[in-house]
Amino acid sequence: MTGPSNYDKAPSVNVPGHACDVGWDAIAARLGGVVAVECYPGVDDLEIIRQLERRLLPALVVRASGALRPQTPSTGWSSRSWAATIPSSGS
């Protein structure tokens, strides 16, 4: 049975006294230090990484999805620890 989507396709948060930055350059100019980005399923997160990486020149980018342990046919989960890092193109 297929019903309406549970996701808000146009999420927003009203923060009194603050304006919304629009465009990659404006967003990157506001960011600094450690940045965490969480996306809805289906969002092109690699494009977001590419756009922010170009402007912020981070030393390291870590994708949480890459830190999941891969399943193996025999055990279901690998006993090895996995971490995914994307070396910065700026370093």
Unreliable stretches = 81-85
Sheet with most strands: 2 strands, antiparallel
Question: Structural class of the secondary elements?
Answer: alpha+beta
Distance between the termini: 49 Å
Q: What share of residues is helical?
A: 10-25%
Q: Note the run of SSEs as H and E.
A: HHEE
Q: Mean pLDDT, nearest integer?
A: 76
As laid out across the biggest beta sheet, the strand order is 1-2
Tell me what portion of residues adopts beta-strand conformation.
5-15%
Tally of DSSP β-strands: 2
Provide the number of structural domains.
1
Structural shape:
flat
Total helical elements: 2
Radius of gyration: 17 Å
Brief synopsis:
The protein is of the alpha+beta class. It is 21% helix and 7% strand.
Describe this structure in words.
With 91 residues, this protein is an alpha+beta fold. The protein has one domain. 21% of the residues lie in helices and 7% in strands. It has two helices and two strands. A two-stranded antiparallel ribbon has the order 1-2. Helix 1 packs across helix 2. The chain is flat. About 5% of the residues have low confidence.
